[in-house]
C-alpha cells in the first residue's frame, strides 16, 4: 500500500511540474519559473519521508489563501494529487466545505452530486466525482481536470473527461 501511495505522490509532483511549465500569463507569454529559496543544509540531512511531509504541509497550508482560518482548522483540506489550476482547486475546496457544513452527517452521494453540478455548470460537462472513506480508482482525465483531495477523513476524487458529440 505504501508503494502505491508513493507512486501517486510521484505522479502528482510530475503533473504539477507540467502544469507549472505550461501555465500562461494573462498576456499570453509563458510564466517564468519561480525560484525557490535555498534550503538550509540541515534540511538535506533529514530523512526523505520527513522532507516530503514538510513539503506537503507547506503546500497544503497555502492552497486556500487563508480566507477561513477557523473553518480550515476544523476541516483539514489536504491535496493528495492534482492536475488542476489553483483557482479550480479552491472552488472545489470551498464547494466541498460548504456542502459538508450543511450536512449533519456525511452523505457521500449528496457531496459528489454537489461538486459535479458545480463544476458541470461552471466549466462545462463531463465532470465526475467520487466521494468516500475507502475506495480505489484508476481513471483517465482531461489535461488540467484532475483533483484528489481529502477533508478530514473524507476523500474526494474530481475529474473531467473529454466529451465527443455523437456523429449521427
TrEMBL record:
Compositionally biased tracts (Basic and acidic residues): 24-44
GO molecular function, one term: dynein intermediate chain binding
GO terms under biological process: microtubule-based process
A GO CC term assigned to this protein in UniProt: cytoplasmic dynein complex
A Pfam family: Dynein_light
Region of interest (Disordered), residue spans: 1-83
Keyword Cell inner membrane: no
Name of the protein in question: Dynein light chain
Species per Swiss-Prot/TrEMBL record: Phoenix dactylifera
Amino acid at each position: 500500500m505504501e508503494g502505491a501511495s508513493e507512486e501517486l505522490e510521484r505522479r502528482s509532483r510530475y503533473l504539477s511540474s507540467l502544469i507549472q511549465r505550461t501555465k500562461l500569463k494573462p498576456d499570453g507569454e509563458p510564466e517564468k519559473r519561480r525560484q525557490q529559496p535555498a534550503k538550509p543544509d540541515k534540511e538535506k540531512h533529514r530523512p526523505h519521508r520527513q522532507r516530503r511531509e514538510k513539503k506537503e504541509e507547506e503546500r497544503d497550508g497555502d492552497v486556500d489563501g487563508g480566507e477561513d482560518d477557523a473553518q480550515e482548522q476544523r476541516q483539514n483540506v489536504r491535496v493528495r494529487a492534482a492536475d488542476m489550476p489553483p483557482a479550480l482547486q479552491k472552488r472545489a475546496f470551498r464547494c466541498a466545505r460548504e456542502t459538508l457544513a450543511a450536512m449533519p452527517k456525511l452523505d457521500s452521494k449528496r457531496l459528489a452530486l454537489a461538486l459535479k453540478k458545480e463544476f458541470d455548470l461552471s466549466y462545462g460537462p463531463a465532470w465526475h466525482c467520487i466521494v468516500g472513506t475507502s475506495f480505489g480508482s484508476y481513471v483517465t482525465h482531461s489535461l488540467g481536470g484532475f483533483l484528489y483531495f481529502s477533508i478530514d477523513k473524507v476523500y474526494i476524487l474530481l475529474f473531467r473527461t473529454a466529451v465527443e458529440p455523437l456523429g449521427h
